[in-house]
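Preliminary data (for renewal application), uracil complex.
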Amino acid sequence: MRMCDIIRKKRDGGVLSDAEIKWFIKGVKEGSVPDYQISALCMAIYFRGMNIEETTALTLAIRDSGKVLDFSEINGLRVDKHSTGGVGDKTSLVVAPIVASLGVKVAKMSGRGLGHTGGTIDKLEAIPGFCTDIPLDEFKKIVNRVGIAIVGQSEDLAPADGKLYSLRDVTSTVDSMPLIVSSIMGKKLAADDDCIVLDVKTGSGAFMKTLDGSRELAHQMVEIGKRAGKRMCALITDMDRPLGYAIGNSLEVIEAIETLKGNGPADLTELCITLASRMLFLAEKGTLAECEANVKRVIENGEALNTFANMVEAQGGEKSWILDSSKFPKAKYSYTVKAERSGYISSVDTEGYGTSSLLLGAGRNTAEDTIDSAAGIILIKKNGDFVEEGEAIAELFAEKEEYFENAKNKLLASTVIGSTPPCSVPLVLDIVE
Ligand code: URA
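Predicted structure:
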């Protein structure tokens, strides 16, 4: 086979065969296909798309480019939850311990922040001592003992995706349906879970900005997961607003702890209850109503928080910080962002809020950058709230005062203040089963 023939075929709208897709991914993994040809094919896929058979073949080839894990030593059903990426999205820190405290195992492999979005692993690393790089045998033992463990994806899991993703990132081919589906599902299918609940974000802070696009993305991921023998469900949730009030790593861990205590923001609490109930429902732990009642019970009686604290301890982290979150260090400097006019916050560009948090040091601009765990934003006003000119809308946190100017400008430019309140939009927009 020749790479230029495969590129030409897709460029002209052809359908790639299983054999061609496998050959391409093998070449990506082995380094025999140069970056410029990988990028050219990604661009051809971006414009021409792929049918579901091609997307399935691409997903399975990405999965098979590395180790496919065996979790059979873990007792009981294993359920995972995956978000397509958002701003202020700390739901994994809340739903995973809830579900584990109700007897369903969570053997979770998570990612780091990507672009303007945060990542679960960066958040967990804000807890001192917490180890996200644990040998597989130890990982399985913790899941059996505590019910839950969360680690970073090892490099031998779907390695072709790492290469593809870094090229997509710099060739404007991230937001392509088949490339997103195969990237996410290739990694998910390499882990050995029985059930997967997907949280497909839609709106200005998501990779997929339109509801139709997100719906199609959800359908394709559910279909491919089912073809691979998994029990699947996808929620499509609004990312035209950040989730909760905290953006930034330790700030988000603290908000997740509050949510596990039952004191979280309404939107975050609602989404966590819905996601956790769906995870339990997929694992056949009762009717949806029963699952929801159980979720609320383990929040109220403290079992979910306790499970989170036990996981932190089992992974080497400071359990006492979870039980007393005032121990998390504060950033050296803070800055109050004030409204430039009176009115209702009628819309926000959520991606801009994510970028503002990056500018404060909460994320990376290059792979080598280190993250400042205490940096980020606490929102004071959100979509729909009324603000007076000069009233505080957000508090920024950073290690260096000079970061505030750009971060403040980005946040203000991403906030639209109008004279009428916006229509209220449900957080969960659709469910694909
Ligand atoms: N997350 C991924 O892992 N891959 C994508 O393509 C988009 C989001």
